Give the backbone structure.
Amino acid sequence: MKIKIFVVVLAAFAMGCLSLSAQTAEEIVKKMTAEIQAAETGGYAVDLNMKMPIIGLVKSHIMVYGDKTRMDVSGKENMGTVWTDATTKWDYSPKDATVTITAKEGSDSGQNELQSVKGLDEGYKLTLKEETADSWYIICKKTKANKVKDDPKKVYLTVSKATYLPISILSKSMLFTFNMANMTTGVTEADVTFDPASLPGVNIIDKR
């Protein structure tokens, strides 16, 4: 009898723990958004991959620290590295062995994409489809109230249980497939600062 009572109590305790640890998709995305905002105050890195007609797959790895960025791009016909700060852009072409310096125009793609990610808890209905020991898998469906034309109708989101940072944010349209993946923190200013000494023998053209 005592064993039966112990088993019942243990089961009730386990169910209580499960109910306390369970989180809704909305709660997970809100915590993810908070972690992204915290990462933006320091340094972070993220992969951005786009698949487009004719051009094919273009992969980029972006590192951000304050107003400085470094983006390494590789594609079917294009490869290179771009550094920027608040006013200046350094564009390195390995093919031409040239760095072209120009005045910076517009904002940085990695930071732009994060703005759209942080809006997922506002313009989308969120459904937790699956979870594993390491990750949550959430489907985000655009609501009728979301009038932003360029927002995708559906976004597939994978969030790390360890960090609450996005592991993958995948969206598709008729022409494009976009995936932001593997967001990490810990980027330093040195990681994103152009250093001519790292490219010996390269021709530097200043067009500012």
